[in-house]
Amino acid sequence: MPGDFAVGYSNPTLRRSADAMMNRSRECSSLEQFCGSPFWDADLLDSADPDVTSCFQQTVLVWVPCLYLWIVAPLYLRQLRMRSNNKVTRKMSRRHLAKTTLAAIMLLVTLLELFKAVGEFASEQDIAAVQIVRPLHLAVTVALAGILIQYEEEKGLQSPGLLFTFWLLSGLCGAVTARSKVRQMMLQESVEDKFRFVTFSLYFSMTVLQLAMSAVSGADRGEKDPSPEESSSFLSRMTFWWFTPFLQLGYKRPLTATDLYPLRKEDTSQHLVPTFHHLWQNELLRYSKQHCFKETILITKLSFLPRHSPSNEKSKAQHTDKDDTSEGKDKPTTWSLFAALFRCFWPLVTVTALFHAAGIILNLTWPQLLKLLIGFTKDKDEYQWKGYLYTALLMTVTVSGSLVGKQFVHRCKTLNLRLKTVLTSAVYKKSLTVTSEARKSFTVGSITNLMSVDAQRVADTCFDLQFVWSMPFQLAGSMYVLWRTLGLTATLAGVAASALLAPIHSWMVSKMKELERTVMEQKDARTKLMTEVLNGMKVLKLYAWELSFKAKIDAIRAKELKAIQHLGYTRAGLAFLGNFTSPLVSFAIFAAYVLTDENNVLDAEKAFMVHTLMGTLQFSFHVLPHVYINIVQAKVSLGRIEDFLRQDELSPDNVRSEMRVNVTCIILYSPPISVDDGTFSWGREEEPILKDINLCIPDGALVAVIGQIGSGKSSLLSALLGEMEKRKGDVSVRGSTAYVCQQPWIQNATLQDNILFDSPMDACRYSAVLESCALGPDLEMLSGGDLTEIGEKGINLSGGQKQRVSLARAAYSGADVYYLDDPLSAVDPHVGRHIFNHVIGPDGLLKNKTRVLVTHGTSFLPQCDQVIVLQGGRVWLRGDYSSLMEQSREFAEYIRTYSNTAGGQSDSGGDPVQMDKTEVEKDPPVHLNNLRHDSNGKVKDLTGTNGLRKRLQKPSRDRLAESRDQEQSEDIKTPGASVNQIKQKEEGKGSKLLQEEEEEQSDGVKLSVLGDYIRSFGTGLFLCMSLLCCGQLAADKYSVVWLSEWTSDGTRDTSLNYLRLGGYGALGLAQGVLSMLVHICVVKGAVLSAMRIHDKALLQLLRGSLQFFDVTPLGRILSRFSQDQERIDRGIGWLIMLWVFFALMALSTLFIVSFSTPLLVVMLLPIAYLYLYMQRYYNATSRQLRRLESKSSTLIHSHFSETLQGVSTIRAYSRCQQFVRQNHARVDQHQTAFYSSSNAENWLGVGLDMAGNAITMFAALLAILGRDSLSPGAVGLSLSSALSIDWILTTMVHIIGHLERNVVSLERLQQYAQTPAEADWTVEDHRPPDNWPAEGNVSLSSYQTRYRDGLDLVIKDITVNISSGEKIGIVGRTGAGKSSLVLAIFRIIEAAGGEIVIDGVNISTIGLHDLRSRITVIPQDPVVFSGTLRMNLDPFEKHPDAEIWRALELAHLKDFIMGLDKQLDHDVSEGGTNLSVGQRQLVCLARALLRKSKLLVLDEATASVDPETDALVQTTIRTQFADCTVLTIAHRLNTIMDSTRILVLDGGKVAEFDTPENLIGSKGLFSSMVRDAGLATQG
Questions:
Q1: What is the sign of the dihedral through the CA atoms of 1449, 1451, 1456 and 1457?
Q2: List of residues 6+ apart from 248 with CB closer than 8 A
Q3: What is the distance between the alpha carbons of residues 897 and 883, in angstroms, rounded to a whole number?
Q4: What pLDDT is attached to residue 19?
Q5: Pairing of strands 850-854, 690-697
Q6: How far is CA 341 from CA 272, 323, 346, 349, 1151, in A?
Q7: What is the distance between the terminal CA atoms of the chain, rounded to a whole angstrom?
């Protein structure tokens, strides 16, 4: 026997166990001496009335809360010190006073107990050491708590979590001691130590009071705490109870944006963006250092190569290629941006991860408690209190898990908010500084997608990234529990089964990455084309090109949907893996357990513990495919955003800016504008546009820049603004700059805001600017005066008004240098003269400023200090007007030739700043004699008829006011108001809104909307999907029933085990297969539905009236076809499937629970009512929040689109920072709605979790009470199902929330499918002949029209007959109705009376495409689209190349096109930015020549070309359209002086209609206009 003992003890395991027992014995002996009584007595717990020892109560139950406070307090104090002092100076609150008083009393009580113990020890009484240590610990800890209370008050904190947790732990531990003391008192019927009993009772009571006061907040909301979240208690924040008043408000009445609680300071753009910007700049700097280091190494390597070696160049090339390759591999394309984001938000990410880890640990605790509960029901001899204890622990774990889980969700949403804020702001800020070359790669559509789609995808991965690290952690924890329960073999089998599917996952993820990139590329292309279509909608309608461009959009859309469909099929494969993984792992575990050892019996405890563990993992396996998808999408999106953020920015070195200093020497030697040997291009790799530029413009000079189309006039202004790349030379500009673009940029703001442009109001200067720019009469017409809102792109202003507002903005800015790009081209001649005299000219408002004026006109050149003539991108001539006339014969000939031709205008055309000039016009000057056609169509000399033409005379103030009289109602883009209607409006000067507010609906999501989606989805597919979901759930739930029956028989029969395993495996395989089939149905239905919805909305949008596009912001439409369409494409179908699946899962789970424990049905009724009430309470507010969120999102996109259109103007005025702040304000407004919506979801989630936890508690209690009649299998089935109720309900809440958000997107897009449409494109019963119009006769009989019902007439009772071949000039003062007449001929506006007949066909009876495709128009605004030149000329591909080349030759573009590499297939950039405005106008002329119809309408067709090109165009029109009827609308009267007859309109009526000679001789309205234009002498 001694030998056996020696051998046994020599075993290492036994030796360690014996040592541990001896150590525990010594520890217990030490604690017994410390307490004077036993530390632990197991017999006290092994009874029906359990208790713990007094030593345990005075040590462990005291030390646990104290140690917690002392460990956490240092970290908490450090955090408090870093917090700014937010305390508002005020009297101490009663609540704080009460907490302080209680802490003082508690300290006093503990000190009294300490003094009592010290006194007893001093008197040598028999007292244990714990009697001194315990009160000492409590006294020091309470003192620390009191200090924290004071410090928190100083920092303005209300009820933080540290002290609440401390009081909670103290209360729970104290409750155990209190129960023990009461039990002993009742057993002994007396109290041994009354003093300590009283002090403990006082201390415990005050602990409970402290806990109560920490659970509520008594602080009032002050100005510095606008949101109740800041002043709410810890418990309120954990349960989101602080958000209840807001939900009550939303339940009572509709919410507005002003009702929303503002964001916390740390969530605002002002706080987040600077931090991220600093970190991102550091990342760029780090990358640039690495890049420079690599280049240095390369240069060092190349320096060792032989200089004259034959292989030198080859070696260099090889080294360079290798370096480029390695650089491409090593270049941080995504991770550098990821690193910057992580460094910015790592504290929040860490806290979020801690909450997630706590939630995982709590989830892993459930199976253990479930095992204990099933064991309790199995062992009938267990004490009843153990069942209640297990139930209490289970409730504690589930409630804690719910609260921790909601805090995890809350912080993920906060991280989502912050990520989207910084990414959106970064993209916006970058778009203000990116170069023109980069803008070619990133169009308006693609940048819009970066903000709306890509930033959202990156932000939405907050949950997914946490899941990535937690999945292995959760899996490892589950495997550990399995190992402790079932052994190593079963655990390894589960690990092997899960690892088996990993390679397939990886392959599918790589495949999805490729498909995702394809989807985004097609989405960018579609958005880009949509942007161009919307910008050129007027041209599409005039040319009847809607179907052609719809076909192009449809082609891109088909490729996009094909990629989405392939992506969906891959997703279906991942769904199979996700739903099959959990059953496969369970199958492997059970098989390894029961088959490896015949003694292993699968009982209910083990089986349902494994099932519950797999249930927690089931959700992980289920969402794993979606996580993969989301992370792949986010990685692609993050790479796209980073690619944009890495684009080159405009170099500050392009222009050397100098501050204006009032020192004589500096002014003398530093001219305002200086260019020394400058060469400029639009890109670093492109050919220079401007070469060898040398300029020196003195202070206060007025310099005119003239030249042919494409000579580089506007490019010169771009170079001076720093918009072009400086290839060599030096550019210096002194002082601030102002810029007036040729195509005026108007903000969607009030007229006053457009003029002030963020400058402070100076009433005197403001009035002077309005007067000088002739805006006074316009303000009298506008209903709100200068506070009238101007619509997007200035839609409620005429072209002249927009140009004058743009000029007024520049004049008010008070800049030192002014760049004026053809500012007078859109105004009448006499108005142009007024503006020149009062603003630009030598005596104007800007007479002391330096001005550079780009112009085609010649009438103002004598008043300029210098004239610069550009030719071929070089300065051809430079000097003052008189010297150039004397010294340059070519210049003098140019002036003599075109001074008469340009006499009828103030100024004309030019090149826009943003244009990318790739070629320079090289056509030689062509001189054109003054010719006109007589009534017979013959050419006739008009020189003798008109005599000498005078310069434009200065108009009188009355005449100027008269010209402004009706401008508001005339413009093509102003269908919204008429003059009389405006005068009838109220006299108030409040801001008047033009654009329609986005429709808000506060009622619930309409079932009709969902019904429409299901019908477009396919009713059969939807039913099939629902049935497959039922089958999948049936397989899932029956597998649980199968497991219950398996564990109930307790058999060891091997053959029966094989049967049970086979059935369980088959059910698991069925789940995976059915899930894949469900996903395939969703893919097919979602793609089909997305195609139908998009096609219907797009078709109806293209059929919409032009007025709809005038009053609807472009950003709003783009948002619907990008962000909203994205949600429909890949959101709503999947969410409907998930909702159906989880709704069926909830019902089946409740059925199983009720079937197992029928009494639970009684408990479910009130819980179900509570659930429905909370859902209804929540929905009333949630729907409104989501619509506010969608509306604020649209504002961001509209502002962004507006910014991109005017980015050059913004940069020229140095207003980038102001616009960045405006973007921040809009982003914060959107995030405020998002944050409120998130809090509402969490509020409901907590409530539903509590309802689910109540179901679990009742199920557990019923199991305890009915354990005599319930089998362990039934208990396991009931409890495992009940435990899943809360996450099922919570998941349903999130699904419903996302579904409602997506349904809102569907509803918004469906609104466009119901857009009021124009008349039918074709009317089959009234198709005109194929050769119609064959002659070109036009007859208007008592014709009248208005822009819409309820408005005054703009054309009033016009009766005109125009014969075939006549050339009719249409003139009139601004607002006379000229352009309205053109719109009427094309039926852009419909007749209100009378008729228009063309060649015997009443145009109101035929289709719009039959009408518009047979008439040719050359519009005032030259619009071209991205694509080839061939597509822009012949989108329907009806004409052979020979005809196209002939048209280009006649339009004087052939030489230019022949010089391009791809010629007709030359790519036109977005908006035609690689063509000048004049070249685009010639492209429009080529379109007209190609169509060659019998009726041609010219609407200011040569407003953007120089006089020479104008002469060419006029010659071409006269020769090529000699046998056609031509209607010409012109401000420049010289272009219509050779017309057969001239139609003079006034106030929408025919004032005069006769030949030019007769009208001039009649001394009527036309005669006065001719005199004003300087085309005839007075007499």
A1: negative
A2: none
A3: 18
A4: 54
A5: unpaired
A6: 11, 29, 8, 10, 47
A7: 146
For tokens 């929408």, the residue is: 1548
How are beta strands 1495-1499 and 1525-1529 bridged, if at all?
parallel
Contacts of 713 (CB under 8 A, 6+ apart): 705, 706, 707, 821, 854, 870, 910, 911
Which residues, including other chains, have CB under 8 Å from residue 1557's CB and lie 6 or more apart? 945
In this prediction, the residues of the chain whose per-residue pLDDT falls under 70 are: 1-29, 83-92, 158-159, 217-226, 289-335, 615-616, 618-619, 621-623, 625-626, 659-669, 796, 829, 897-1006, 1049-1055, 1286, 1374-1375, 1500-1507, 1531, 1572-1579
Nearest to 1457 by CA among 1477, 1482, 1436: 1482
In 3D, which of 168, 139, 171, 161 has the Cα closest to residue 76?
Answer: 161
* SS3 of 436-475: HHHHHHCCHHHHHHHHHHHHHHHHCCHHHHHHHHHHHHHH
CA distance 1023 to 1033: 15
pLDDT score at 1005 = 55
Measured in degrees and rounded to the nearest 5, phi and psi for residue 1098 equal -65, -45
Q: What is the pLDDT of residue 426?
A: 92
Predicted pLDDT at 503: 78
Give 790's DSSP letter.
P
Structure tokens at 1161: 């049905």
The Cα 725–Cα 650 span in angstroms is 8
Instruction: For 480-535, write each residue's pLDDT tens digit.
Output: 877 877 888 888 887 788 777 777 877 887 787 788 888 888 888 888 888 888 88
Q: How many CB atoms lie within 10 A of CB 936?
A: 8
Q: What is the pLDDT of residue 1177?
A: 81
Q: Are 1508 and 708 in contact (CB under 8 A)?
A: yes
Half-sphere exposure (Cβ direction) of 302: Cα atoms closer than 13 Å: 18
Query: What is residue 1452's predicted lDDT score, i.e. its pLDDT?
Result: 81
Question: What is residue 440's predicted lDDT score, i.e. its pLDDT?
Answer: 77
The separation between CA 192 and the C-alpha centre of its own chain, rounded to angstroms, equals: 72
Tokens of 996: 């329609």
Please say whether the beta carbons of 1391 and 1397 come within 8 A: no
Kindly report the number of other CB atoms within 10 A of residue 654's CB atom: 19
DSSP annotation string for 1143-1188: HHHHHHHHHHHHHHSTTHHHHHHHHHHHHHHHHHHHHHHHHHHHHH
Q: Which two tokens stand for residue 1142?
A: 């989880």
Name residues whose C-beta falls within 8 Å of residue 354's C-beta, 6 or more positions apart in sequence.
none
User: How far is Cα of residue 861 from the mean position of the Cα atoms in its chain?
Assistant: 49
507: CB partners within 8 A, 6+ apart = none
Cross-strand pairs, 697: 673
Q: How far apart are the C-alpha atoms of 425 and 416, rounded to whole Å? A: 14
Distance from C-alpha of 1496 to C-alpha of 1521, rounded to nearest angstrom: 8
What b/e readout covers 807-821, taking b as 16+ CB neighbours within 10 angstroms? bbbbbbbebbbbbbb
- Residue 706: both structure tokens together: 């003239």
Q: Where does residue 1336 fall: left (phi above 0), alpha (psi -120 to 50 degrees), or beta otherwise?
A: left
Rounded to an integer, what distance in angstroms lies between the CA atom of residue 377 and that of residue 370? 11
Burial of 638 (0-12, 13-18, 19+ CB in 10 A): buried
pLDDT of 914: 33
pLDDT confidence of residue 21: 46
**pLDDT more than 70, % of the chain:** 83
HSE of 820, CA atoms in CB hemisphere, 13 A: 35
Distance CA 1189, CA 1236 (A): 9
Burial of 69 (0-12, 13-18, 19+ CB in 10 A): buried
Helix (H), strand (E), coil (C) string for 801-816: HHHHHHHHHHHHHCCC
